[in-house]
Amino acid sequence: MALQRLNLSGGSYDARAVSVAAQRCLNLYGEPVPVEEGEPVRFAYYLTPGLRKIAQMTGAIRCLYQTTQGDLIVVAGSQVSRLYKDGALTSIGTISPGSTPVRMSDNGTCRFIVDGSSGNGWFCSMPSSPGSSKGSTTTFSYSVNSATRSGS
Q1: Which helix (H) or strand (E) holds 105?
Q2: Whole-prediction pTM value?
Q3: How much is the CA Rg of the chain, to the nearest whole Å?
Q4: Are residues 15 and 82 in the same domain?
C-alpha cells in the first residue's frame, strides 16, 4: 500500500476556540518551495534543534505548571516537585498515584492540585518569593457545597 502524501502548507498556529482546528509544529522549519519549480508540495520541512531532556523523573508526567511567581512545578506519577532551569528537582510532596492528567491553579499564596478523583485534592502554601523553599502538600476533601480540610 502506497503512503498518502500530505501537503503540510501554512504556518503553525494554536486557535483559542476549540471548535477551530489547531496545528502546532515542533522542531520543524518550513521552507517554501517556489511555485515555478513545479514540485507537488509547497513546503520542505527540516528538523531544527528544540526540545531536550533536562531532568529524569519516574512515572508519567501528569502536569507542568508555571506558578504566578514563575516557578515550574511538575507532577510525575505521585511526586510533586519544583523543576529548576539546571534540571535539579526539589520535592514538594506527593499526591495519589496515577497517570491521569492533573490540574493546578494558584492565587499567589496557595497552590491547589486536583486529579479528577471525586472529592479530593491537595494544596500547598507558596513561598514569599520565587525560588524559595515550599511547604509540603496537604490533602483536602470537599463536597459540592463546601470545602473541608482533612490533614494528610
Answers
A1: strand 103-106
A2: 0.57
A3: 22
A4: no
Q: In 3-state terms, what secondary structure has residue 36?
A: helix
Distance CA 74, CA 87 (A): 12
The answer to the question of residue 126 being in a domain is yes
Q: Is 98 exposed, middle or buried (CB count within 10 Å of its CB: 0-12, 13-18, 19+)?
A: middle
The DSSP call for residue 69 is T
- The boundaries of the domain holding residue 79 are 61-149
Residue pair 63/103 in contact (Cβ under 8 Å)? The answer is yes
Q: Do residues 110 and 139 both lie within one domain?
A: yes
Give the whole-angstrom CA distance, residue 46 versus residue 13. 18
Residue pLDDT tens, the chain, 152 long: 566 655 565 555 566 666 666 566 667 777 888 888 777 777 788 877 666 778 888 888 899 999 888 889 999 998 999 898 888 998 888 888 888 899 999 988 888 898 887 677 888 877 766 656 555 556 655 444 444 444 44
Per the CB < 8 A criterion, the answer to whether 107 and 126 are in contact is no
